[in-house]
Amino acid sequence: MNVLIVESRSELGTLWKTHLQRQGMDVTLVGDQEGAINHLTTQPTDIIVLDLVLEDGAALAVADYANYRVPEARVVFVTNTTFFSDGSIFAHSANARAFLPSDTSPEDLAAMIEHYAAEAS
Asked: I want to staple 25 with a disulfide (CB 3.0 to 4.6 A). Which of 20, 31, 50, 108 is the partner?
């Protein structure tokens, strides 16, 4: 399973990446929109863990590009804000599958990723 993590906070992204790799997943961590677009252009991706608030770039632009370039990829949005807490993210992003707080445990994030990867199969 190929996972792309798009997270501006490197310590959080590294925590997730390390845990997912221990679960046997192939994980790439990028910190911004440009890195995510470059990855999606050249690498197979099954699941995208995407922070809704990126320091450089726009998460919805990444999700839209993924929907066009890799339509089978599922997006798990994470955030530490109340942005889209009403669930409207699902109306804005056709490939959104989950919306989680950034402090979700790595174990729970891995379970969500496994669930949505199985959906894609």
From this structure: 20
Structure tokens at 116: 């949505």
Q: Are 58 and 33 in contact (CB under 8 A)?
A: yes
Q: How far is CA 97 from CA 50, 63, 72, in A?
A: 11, 11, 12
Q: What is the pLDDT of residues 22-40, one digit of tens each?
A: 999 999 999 999 999 999 9
**Range 2-120 classified under CATH 3.40.50.2300:** yes
Express each pLDDT in 53-73 by its tens digit: 999 999 999 999 999 999 999
The DSSP code for 51 is E
For position 79, what pLDDT does the model report? 86
* Angle formed at CA 100 by CA 121 and CA 98, multiple of 5 degrees: 30
Query: If you search the block for the tokens 């590294």, which residue do you land on?
Result: 14
DSSP label at 9? -
Q: Are 40 and 4 in contact (CB under 8 A)?
A: yes
pTM of the model as a whole: 0.93
CA distance 37 to 39: 5
